[in-house]
Amino acid sequence: MATGWIDIHGHFTPPISAKDREARWHAMREAKFMVPEPFQWTPESTLSYLDRAGIAMQMLSNIPKQLDALKDSNNYAASLVAKYPSRFGLLAALPTDNSTAALAEIERASRDLRADGFAVTCNYNGVYLGDSSLNDVWVELNRRHAVVFVHPDAYAPASMGRPSPLIEVAFETTRTVVDMLYAGVFRRYPKIRFILAHCGGALPVLSGRLKLLGTEPWVPNPNKITQDEIKQQLSRLYLDTAATAPTGMAPALYMVPADHLVYGADCGVPCSTESTMEANKKAVLDFDGLSKNQRLAIGRNVLALFPGAAARLDRKHGIRVDSREASGVNGLAGSRRYSMSHT
Hints:
It comes from Cladonia borealis. The chain is an alpha/beta fold. The chain is built from 13 helices and twelve strands. The protein has helices at residues 18-30, 43-53, 67-83, 99-111, 135-143, 168-183, 185-188, 203-213, 227-235, 249-255, 274-286, 292-297, 307-316; strands at residues 5-11, 55-61, 88-93, 117-121, 123-124, 127-128, 147-151, 193-196, 238-240, 261-262, 319-325, 336-340. An eight-stranded parallel sheet has the order 1-2-3-4-7-8-9-10. Strands 5-6 form a two-stranded antiparallel ribbon. α4 (99-111) runs parallel beside α5 and α8 (203-213) packs parallel to α10 (249-255). Mean pLDDT is 89; it is low at 320-343.
């Protein structure tokens, strides 16, 4: 049973009018995302679910495709963290189609909003994360030892008559991360801790093929990435468990160590229901490829990356801090293991 878990993958929607909700609903259905009614997110309903699910804190992320809306969204999430500091954390969205705007938002979110980390989408208005225009953004995030949550575009057009969240999100993540690998992003900015949504999509399954064939002479490789680098750089990534257990976890463990698996519910969007989130969580808890202690740790592994969130939980619930170094964790996170003990 999950107790005191941390959910890295919590979506939210700032308050909007009934008319705007209706318009979004029709746009989703046009994209074959056949949700039966307009979707409404509220903090109260989310907190109610978190209580039932045994989740102590949820990291909030939302990445609008317009800069003003993105800033407003970050402001709203920050207000929720201020109101519920032991229940929510903020992954501030970055506008990765404009490096100047992204750098300004990194500074603002860190200084004024006290963000725990950052959230980016694979394709932001046509600019992918491997694009060279983002080099200055990665330099700054690397300097800050930042945690960056990478999410695909779930609202992309349908493919072969089926909505993007069903299949395409897995391949967009895979294509984007492979492009980042060949672009040298992971080589040049090793202090950024990247967390991939949905267990990295299809990337873990394809990671063996990538290592086997990815450095062959017929593959364009301008940065001369080696087989060892492919293995090492992919192993440093963190993967959340959202909507992928049980079939996603075994390939994930081929690519990353067990303490790089973190819990994600994919909460707060119309493609997730309490039933599907709980079925996925049960599959994580029942997964026989890990020990019981390792399975339970999935719900708290991410705390090693978020010392500010851990401190807020400490003030509310009490957290024992183990002085041992957490393997695979470097930089600003304090490199410690945290475990929850409610008081």
